[in-house]
């Protein structure tokens, strides 16, 4: 039971650090939520892969494989900010809201 709780706390801390960085980089709440859900899903998939391989610490290995949560969040934020800037340019140029394809 304790191992499960500490593993959960470890993953929650990792995701919390990502969320804080996304917020710092100006990603809006809706996009942050979507990004974190996607990242958590991928993380859970990686944990399952490491478990299937018989890893002793599947969560630790999955987190290590993902990398630094601050750097990953910064990469996601850059993509989100670029997408937002592209949308803003289209609104300004066309006079109405349009979305990238």
Name the descriptors.
single chain; mainly alpha
Structure commentary:
- The protein is mostly helical and 101 residues long.
- The chain has one domain (2-94).
- It has four helices and no strands.
- It has helices spanning 2-24, 29-52, 58-66, 69-94.
- α2 crosses α3.
- The longest helix has 26 residues, at 69-94.
- The chain is elongated and about 40 Å long.
Secondary-structure blueprint:
Blueprint: H1 2-24, H2 29-52, H3 58-66, H4 69-94
Summarize the structure.
By secondary structure, the protein is mainly alpha-helical.
Question: Termini distance?
Answer: 47 Å
Give the averaged pLDDT, no decimals.
Answer: 80
Question: What's the number of structural domains?
Answer: 1
Largest sheet: none
Spell the H/E element sequence. HHHH
What is the share of helical residues? over 70%
> What sort of overall outline do the alpha carbons produce when their principal axes are compared?
elongated
How many runs of DSSP E, i.e. beta strands?
0
Our count of helices gives: 4
Portion in strands: under 5%
Low-pLDDT ranges: 1-5, 88-92
Radius of gyration: 17 Å
Structural class by SSE content: mainly alpha
